[in-house]
Specification:
- With 410 residues, the chain is an alpha+beta fold.
- Strands 5, 6, 7, 8, 9 and 10 form a six-stranded antiparallel β-sheet that branches.
- α6 runs parallel beside α7 and α7 packs parallel to α8.
- The two termini are 32 Å apart.
């Protein structure tokens, strides 16, 4: 899954990838850069292409932007540029620039093609190498997690690897979506990545793209009496699959549960709340959203806590991000589970998707989320109760000391 970042829809599903539709409370001025909606009653107004540029700007309040300088640049390009201008690309560039100017790595504009790819990733089927990408504090494109069993992992790509070039072209300064667009491609084709590992070792990898189809939940019984649930992403089907897995394992009288969210890049916020509710009584706090330091919404467990009172270990690592961190934090803070592994990724913000009239999308950070104990893990991650760090020898020998530690604890 080359998404974005750490990832929400159906009437107000949010994510870390929320697909909810929201109108902008913005007056649409001349020289409008994106096709957005004006909230009028319960409807939306979509501007036509003829309304995108005008010769003057009439500002009526301080919330409006003066687009006259954009007009000047566009007029100069039309007059003097030696070549053909693609109006659609120009508009996409301006819209992307608006989002990038926010300074938030998770706020970005996705054109129609990128928006479709984003939806494909959330549904779990797409063509690519099978790796979730993000950005570090320096703005580098990094691997949040390679997805188990797919080309990126098989080629040796690891969480926290910095990608510096794609097919010989630098991606410094590119958005996550732009990097994803360069890495993805048709099944059977190859992509060459130059990466930096541990901020010191430089490597070149050639990866053959494939169709990536990911089941969001898988489960089994280990050692005869330990239930194992692995969630690879929080998608539309997770809320159905996870309870089914939990009920099946409980019917087999397991003595404990291992919930594995390692290398889970996140997904739908509502799905993470639903999964947490498999352990928590109805009404227990899963997370709070805050904006400007004030609580704007509290998410609580609902449904049936099928796995309540069954001893549970949650496995986390540096590839556990976003929605998977919500579940891990909620279960630990409520005393429903202990955590084993290494510190998680650290994505403590919530994004919402604004569906625009031309099929494009604005992904915008709308709040910060906090665990039930009031902790925001953004850029900090969640530290496990018991740290178990696999060695290079473990990796080469295909040993899983974190899983073994969880089984021993149960």
């Amino acid at each position: 899954m080359e998404p974005q970042n750490p990832v929400e829809i159906k009437p107000k599903k949010r994510l870390h990838k929320n697909k909810a539709l929201r109108t902008f409370g913005v007056t649409v001025a001349a020289g409008l850069i994106f096709i957005s909606g004006l909230g009028i009653g319960s409807g939306r107004i979509i501007l036509s292409k003829d309304q995108l540029f005008r010769t003057s700007v009439q500002q009526t309040d301080t919330d409006n932007l003066d687009y006259s300088s954009v007009e000047q640049v566009y007029d100069a390009l039309r007059k003097d540029y030696d070549g053909q201008l693609d109006t659609e690309k120009i508009l996409d560039g301006i819209k992307s620039g608006l989002a990038t100017a926010s300074g938030d790595p998770y706020t970005e504009y996705l054109n129609k093609k990128e928006a479709q790819e984003f939806d494909d990733q959330l549904s779990g089927t797409f063509s690519g190498i099978g790796a979730e990408l993000g950005k570090d504090e320096q703005g580098n494109i990094i691997v949040i997690s390679p997805i188990a069993g797919f080309p990126a992992e098989k080629a040796g790509l690891k969480a926290q690897d910095i990608i510096v070039e794609v097919d010989g072209e630098s991606i410094t300064g590119k958005t996550i979506s732009e990097a994803v667009g360069k890495i993805r491609g048709e099944k059977g084709t190859t992509v060459k990545l130059r990466i930096v590992r541990n901020r010191s070792q430089e490597l070149n990898l050639e990866i053959t793209r494939d169709t990536i189809t990911i089941a969001s939940v898988e489960s089994k019984v280990l050692d005869g009496n330990i239930g194992y649930i692995k969630i690879t992403r929080y998608g539309d089907d997770t809320v159905q699959r996870a309870p089914a897995a939990a009920s099946d394992l409980k019917s087999k009288n397991v003595v404990g549960i291992i919930l594995d969210v390692r290398n889970n890049p996140g997904g739908l916020l509502d799905a993470s709340v639903g999964v947490s509710g498999l352990w928590l009584d109805k009404g227990k706090t899963v997370l709070q959203e805050k904006r400007d330091g004030k609580v704007i919404r509290t998410y609580s467990a609902k449904g049936t806590p099928i796995l309540k009172d069954i001893k549970t270990i949650v496995l986390i690592n540096a590839g556990s991000a976003s929605a998977s961190e919500i579940t891990a934090g909620a279960l630990r803070d409520n005393g429903a589970a202990t955590l084993i592994g290494v510190k998680s990724y650290g994505k403590g913000s919530v994004q919402q998707l604004e569906r625009l009239g031309d099929g494009s999308v604005l992904k915008v950070t709308i709040a910060r989320w906090f665990t039930p104990n009031g902790i925001n893990i953004d850029k900090e991650g969640i530290k496990p109760d018991t740290e178990v760090k696999p060695t290079e020898e473990d990796t080469k020998a295909q040993r899983d000391p974190q899983l073994e530690a969880a089984k021993a604890a149960l």
